[in-house]
Write a structure and sequence with these properties.
The complex is a heterodimer of chains A (115) and B (113). In chain A, strands 2, 4, 5, 9, 10 and 11 form a six-stranded mixed beta sheet that branches. In chain A, strands 1-3-8-7-6 form a five-stranded antiparallel beta sheet, with no helix packed on it. By secondary structure, chain A is mainly beta. The relative contact order of chain B is 0.34. In chain B, strands 2, 4, 5, 6, 9, 10 and 11 form a seven-stranded mixed beta sheet that branches. A four-stranded antiparallel beta sheet of chain B has the order 1-3-8-7, with no helix packed on it. The N and C termini of chain B lie far apart (36 Å). With 113 residues, chain B is an all-beta fold. The chains are: A mainly beta (115), B mainly beta (113). Chains A and B meet through strand 5 and strand 10 of A and strand 4, strand 5, strand 9 and strand 10 of B.
């Protein structure tokens, strides 16, 4: 049973526009959330994270929003660039600090940035 | 730093054969994780170690799968005997309390014919 869900397998966005990737979770014990980016034939690389004590975290063009009551988070990329084309994974973990325990991943969203 | 190193990058084997995947974590990281990626199930945690000790192996699918970490710089994931449904990309990741996240290796693409 998927505890972390990314319901959009793919998303196409025009270059320069905003990309919004969504993620839902079911386990209320999750308290730390991460987004990873993955290019073909490479491992996932960390993009941005958010703790459950916050509702927003920003890093350059990337912002993650967390709505705990809805068990929903989203990743915003503004403006979208061709190099952002990749598969994005949402991940969650239990209380212990960022990465000490295993991560529970969604199935990923393939973001395609159109020129 | 070389990052997490995995070998081989690709493995093709026949059903029934033993497969051994290898991982070298980032130096100084004290936690190591094995994940598997398939189309059906996405990325799923198989097992992880803290200070070379297995902590949670509830994700290991069957007794055919085993993992060891004999020292802080090396881990293996073994499948014996392998089956076609084991075909997937297997990732190793490492972490330390001073790191901001888990760092993933490039993965091993396993094909079992």
């Amino acid at each position: 049973d998927q505890q972390v869900k990314q319901n959009s397998p793919s998303l196409s966005v025009q270059e320069g526009r905003i990309s919004i990737l969504n993620c839902d979770y079911t386990n209320s014990m999750f308290d730390y959330f991460l987004w990873y980016k993955k290019y073909p034939a490479e491992g996932p690389t960390f993009l941005i994270s958010i703790s459950s004590i916050k509702d927003k975290n920003e890093d350059g063009r990337f912002t993650v929003f967390l709505n705990k009551s809805a068990k929903h988070l989203s990743l915003h990329i503004v403006p979208s660039q061709p190099g952002d084309s990749a598969v994005y994974f949402c991940a969650a973990t239990m209380p212990s600090g960022g990465g000490a325990d295993g991560l529970t991943f969604g199935k990923g969203t393939h973001l395609i940035i159109q020129p | 730093d070389a990052g997490v190193i995995q070998s081989p990058r690709h493995e093709v084997t026949e059903m029934g054969q033993e497969v051994t995947l290898r991982c070298k974590p980032i130096s100084g990281h004290n936690s190591l994780f094995w994940y598997r990626q398939t189309m059906m199930r996405g990325l799923e945690l198989l097992i992880y170690f803290n200070n070379n000790v297995p902590i949670d192996d509830s994700g290991m699918p069957e007794d055919r799968f085993s993992a060891k970490m004999p020292n802080a710089s090396f881990s293996t994931l073994k499948i014996q005997p392998s089956e076609p449904r084991d075909s997937a990309v297997y990732f190793c990741a490492s972490w330390s309390s001073w790191a901001d996240t888990q760092y993933f290796g490039p993965g091993t693409r396993l094909t079992v014919l």
